[in-house]
Amino acid sequence: MPDSLYYFVQQLLNGLTVGSTYALIAIGYTMVYGIIGMINFAHGEVYMIGSYIAFISIAALAMFGIEFLPLMIIGTFIISMIVTSAYGYSIERVAYRPLRGGNRLIPLISAIGMSIFLQNLVRLAQGSRDIAMPNLIPGGINIGPPEGFSATLSYMQMIIFAVTLISMTLLTLFITRSRMGRACRACAEDLKMTNLLGINTNGIIALTFVIGAALAAVAGVLLGMYYGVVNPYIGFMAGLKAFTAAVLGGIGSIPGAVLGGLLLGVTEAMTAGYFSSEYKDVVAFSLLILVLLFRPSGILGRPEVEKV
Amino acid sequence: MTRHNFKAAIISAAVVIALTGLLMGVRLSQSGGGLIVTGAGPDVYWKIAAAALFMFLFNLFRDQLDGLWRALPGIPKSPAGLTAVTEKPVVRRLFWCFLIAAALIWPFYADRGGTDLATLVLIYIMLGLGLNIVVGLAGLLDLGYVGFYAVGAYTYALLAMYFDIGFWPGLFAAGAMAALFGFLLGFPVLRLRGDYLAIVTLGFGEIIRILLNNMTWLTSGPNGIGGIPKPTLFGLEFSRRASDGMQTFHEFFGIEYSSVHRVMFLYFLALVLVLITLYVINRLLRMPVGRAWEALREDEIACRSLGINPTAVKLNAFTIGATFAGFAGCFFAARQGFISPESFTFIESAIILAIVVLGGMGSQVGVILAAIIMTLLPEVARQFDEYRMLLFGLLMVLMMIWRPQGLLPMKRPHLELRT
Amino acid sequence: MSAIQPLLDVSSLTMRFGGLLAVDGVELKIMPQQIVSMIGPNGAGKTTVFNCLTGFYKPSAGRILFRGEDIQGLPGFKVARRGMVRTFQHVRLFKEMSVVENLLVAQHHNMNTSMLAGLFKTRAFRRSENEAMERAAYWLERVNLLEFANRKANTLAYGQQRRLEIARCMVTQPTLLMLDEPAAGLNPRETEDLKELIAELRNTHKLTILLIEHDMKLVMSISDRIVVINQGCPLAEGTPEEIRQNPDVIKAYLGET
Asked: CB within 8 A of C215, min separation 6: which ones?
């Protein structure tokens, strides 16, 4: 009997691990949606690029002789966040800003184009094959009896939880305490009015994309190290999952994105653990469809009132 | 050349380097158990430097460039002459006659490869026209259109495999099955706002593909289904030797066997399907439901206040669109003789969407033109094949910025009141 | 249905948005072929009442009987199909469509033709199209827009657009017509025409009319009854004469204007 309990704990831990990275990516969707009401379809590709940059910088730092692990990882985070921020900013500047204030579907189509473009850019630059990396932080803590089945909380998982928690705390502090954060909230409330009050809303929108991209980079580094594999196609699925998480929690709401991410991660892990890993994506998408049908405003979202 | 411009120029050059420096300037590869990075080579460095320099200069002289741009004679927003001509009904009719005549003559002039390629173009035209009903006419962004295409293809393939069903009944079954899926999906989700609908349909397309991949007992999963029977002409087969109880085309007409016959037959079959699609769309545009689609795109609230059920009207478009995808899927399966889930990825949906968007949402000539361009381009320029998807993506972005209405924007036939 | 039964019977209608009570206990009784006006200061909740009645909002509480049947909670298009049709405070035409097409769209659900009939252009289909066209022409003539039939709707002048909106309601053959500030933005001449049109709709087409209006001259001259709403609550109800002399109304509304 305890075996099955530890098995459950293991699935839960795995689910929470993946779920926290979904949450990190989902914040990018939710913040952009909260401010300009568009689905940044290319966000998944930003995560993918973050993961590639993580691999590149780990290899490069190692070649330059920086073998001290904490330094290497911190360096990787910084480099990756800088590059994806540049991507987040440029994507908004090139593909979305010229289209603001029109039909909703036009920026969405542009975003799909951007997503295809970025995916193929990386494919052309880095090849389409899987690239694998050895596990930098092996080992973990065993939970349960030394004999028989026990659950393992790996050090990598602990790092993922810690980094996610730190990122979320910093983001919350930024949003609630800083002047820029207050401007962000004002924009989410009423973009036009905020603009009239003399706040550079273009700057705030760009900042939102940059923050989202930086958090996607954090997720890219973490998941890259956790799975140890990267290819140009990982962004599509991860983006869809993160969007699902954002909608699940209530799009526009940051705590909602976290809740949705964790919920989705655990649901997937449980499906994979108790049913079949092939169907975990089907379950995730079915969850998305069901949520949109029965509670389109998500778990923590505010329902929209139609203006007649 | 102000200081402000200089700062912007420096920043933009730095952004270009941040974007490309590591991702493109460095190549990641594996050696043994570890990772290594190598430089991508001087030609890539030069390109990066050139891009950075270009952005630097562009931003530095931005004001001057803007002035020049404004001084240029305005580029006409749309080819004015073309639009004026296409509006005349006589010219329109002549144009269509010419187009159909050209399509009829084509296989007699082209070689086998040319006819085969034209058949592929026709499949994309059919898919484009079908999606055009949903996206262009009803204004519903469907990102999972390929799901219905897959349903059609697999319906025929499975019926043929398990029940020996021929092409023609299979065609109807495929259309009906796709319509059923469209109805079942559309019924609940069409209440959703536009962008949510897009994502839900995308999820649906993925679910279909994953299911086809994993329901190995039914679909043999990633291995696909082979040996799908080819279409017959009133029971005449296009093979060298007839199967049991059948007759072949060349025996019946007493001519010598040639494999070109089959290619031509497939081409004409596709042409007939496309013509039927065109006819149906043209009727729909002149029917109450066609008017309701446009009204719904303009003002959904006003529609509701007049007793129009938005969900039902949208469901019409969704189901009809799905049906055509089903037909196209069935034809595709019969032509290829082999299908696997690989043919039905999201990229396929994006290509069909690109055809609709490029052509001008709602415009039928536009869709035909765009389907030809999209299919022929990579064939003509083989050396650019690698870059095809990259350019696709770029084109979609640029189209949305410069010409969101597409190459040939739609002109809906307007009903006139004669007094 | 007996003759004295009201066409529309609304009791204790309440609409709450979060913490805001926009409509609170509104009562409304409209007899067949009456013209009833709803007046009240800006933000009193008149349009919200309209939205609740026509199914655009789901009222938080209350009961709406139309021809003796419960209609609260029905979606807007079903309410419209039962013969209760409205216009909007801001004109909502299908701007890119022609004037006559606006009227054809409005007849969508009345046209009993199947998809197949349309695809094969059967006789039934052509007949139904012709009937729709004739009805459209009839109403265009009524509102003096026949000569503009084939123009795009957004090329019409504002007053013409308002009339087109009324014609568009009329082709659906309603029993109750609800007009949300029909005279807003019209000049005195056009307001006079509107008054005649409303009277004609009631007298020759046996229509019942509920309107929201700020133009007191118009309201007083055509209404059989007037309902006054203030801050979401019903304030007074009666004939124009009674309302004119009601001290509460004078204090809350007329006195201030």
From this structure: C183, C184, C191
Q: What angle do CA A64, A68, A74 make, to 5 degrees?
A: 90
Probe site for chain A from B27, B193, B195, B209 (most A CB atoms < 10 A): B195
Q: What is the pLDDT of residue C257?
A: 46
Low-confidence ranges of chain A (pLDDT < 50): none
CATH architecture group of domain B86-231+272-402? Orthogonal Bundle (1.10)
Q: How many CB pairs under 8 A join A and C?
A: 7
Residues of B in contact with C92 (CB under 8 A): 299, 301-302, 305
The region of weakest confidence among A32-36, A140-144, C204-208, C218-222 is: A140-144
For residue A289, the surrounding DSSP H or E stretch is: helix A280-294
- Name the fold adopted by C87-173: Rossmann fold (3.40.50)
- In the A/B pair of chains, how many CB contacts fall below 8 A? 178
CB-based contact C233:C28 (threshold 8 Å): no
User: Among residues A59, A70, A26, which one has the least CA distance to residue A300?
Assistant: A26
Contacts of A58 in chain B (CB under 8 A): 35
Distance CA B88, CA B98 (A): 15
Which strand (E) or helix (H) includes residue B280? helix B259-285
Computed over every residue of chain B, the mean pLDDT equals 84
Within 8 A of A306 by CB-CB distance, chain C residues are 56
- Same CATH fold, C87-173 and C1-83+177-190+208-257? yes
Entry pTM: 0.86
User: Which chains have 3+ CB pairs within 8 A of C?
Assistant: A, B
Helix (H) or strand (E) holding A15: helix A2-36
Query: Taking CB atoms and an 8 Å cutoff, what residues of chain C touch B419?
Result: 137, 146, 149
- pLDDT higher than threshold 80 for residue C239: yes
Phi first, then psi: give them for residue B230, nearest 5 degrees.
-80, 160
Sorted by where each begins, the domain ranges of chain B are: 3-70, 86-231+272-402
Read off the pLDDT of residues A201-223 as tens digits, 9 standing for 90 and up.
Answer: 888 899 999 999 999 999 999 99
Choosing among 3.40.50.300, 1.10.630.10, 1.10.10.10, 3.40.50.1370, the CATH entry for C1-83+177-190+208-257 is 3.40.50.300
pLDDT of residue A296: 76
C51: which chain A residues are within 8 Å (Cβ-Cβ)?
A: 308
pLDDT tens-digit map of B316-343: 999 999 999 999 999 999 998 899 998 8
Taken in order B161, B166, B169, B174, is the CA torsion positive or negative?
A: positive
Binary contact (A308, C51; C-beta < 8 A): yes
Which residues fall within 8 angstroms of residue B168, CB to CB, at 6 or more apart? B231, B232
Whether C96 and B412 have beta carbons less than 8 Å apart is answered as no
Placement of tokens 């469907």 in the chain: B142
Q: Please say whether the dihedral angle defined by the alpha carbons of residues A199, A203, A209 and A212, taken in this order, is positive or negative.
A: negative
Query: Residue by residue, what is the 3-state secondary structure of B338-383?
Result: CECHHHHCHHHHHHHHHHHHHHCCCCHHHHHHHHHHHHHHHHHCHH
Distance CA B151, CA B149 (A): 5
The total of other beta-carbon atoms located within 10 Å of residue C227's CB is: 26
> For residue B35, which of C18, A228, A87, A84 has the smallest C-alpha distance?
A228
pLDDT tens, residue by residue, A108-129: 889 989 999 999 999 999 988 8
Q: Is C101 on the interface with B (CB under 8 A)?
A: yes
> Which DSSP state fits C60?
S
Closest residue in B to A278 (Cα) is: B214
Would you kindly state where each structural domain of chain C is located, as residue ranges? 1-83+177-190+208-257, 87-173
**Between residues 72 and 91 of chain A, which touch chain B (CB distance below 8 Å)?**
79, 82-83, 86-87, 89-90
| pLDDT for res C1 | 46
